[in-house]
Amino acid sequence: MDASQVSEGLDQANLGDAVAMTELARRAYAHYIPVINAVPVPMTADYAAHIRRDDVWVLRSGTSLAASLVLIRHPDHLLIESIAVDPEEQGKGRGRQLLDWARRRAADFGLSEIRLYTNVLMTENRAWYQRAGFAETHQEQRGDKRIVHMRLTL
């Protein structure tokens, strides 16, 4: 992708970002541990593997990461695997910027649907995605966690 096409402040992640992405996910998701009584999946993800195989983007703030986005391309949709925004950067439109970029990437790939999933107990996330136009499609039990699936048709 041409750098002129990239949203302001957004860079494609490189392997050097993997550790910082893990630290960012820990900061962004730690407050959910007592809510869901478990460690959220993005806190344990293998970001180096995601960077090697998926469409991964970061927003930088000085020398640190303000936010990250992991997208997985499927034949019929684009999956948002994770969005992480540093707690100090929340409320500044970082998450919305990443969602807008996910919409653009879906269009670049010729896809008309974006999907994601989150824990049912992460009510703030669910409400935020709904305000952004996502609709809940179904729930499923994954081990001891209840997951809600969401979809945005472009």
Description:
This is N-acetyltransferase domain-containing protein. The protein is an alpha+beta fold and about 150 residues long. The chain has one domain (about 5-115): Aminopeptidase (3-Layer(aba) Sandwich). The protein has five helices and seven strands. It has a seven-stranded mixed sheet, with helices on both faces. It is globular. The two termini are about 20 Å apart. Mean pLDDT is about 95; it is low at about 1-5.
Return the average pLDDT rounded to an integer.
Answer: 94
CATH class category label: Alpha Beta
First and last CA, distance = 21 Å
Q: Quickly count the domains.
A: 1
Which spans of ≥5 residues are poorly predicted at pLDDT below 50?
1-5
Keywords: Acyltransferase, Transferase
Organism: Roseibium algicola
InterPro entries: Acyl_CoA_acyltransferase (IPR016181), Bact_Acetyltransf (IPR050832), GNAT_dom (IPR000182)
Domain N-acetyltransferase: 8-154
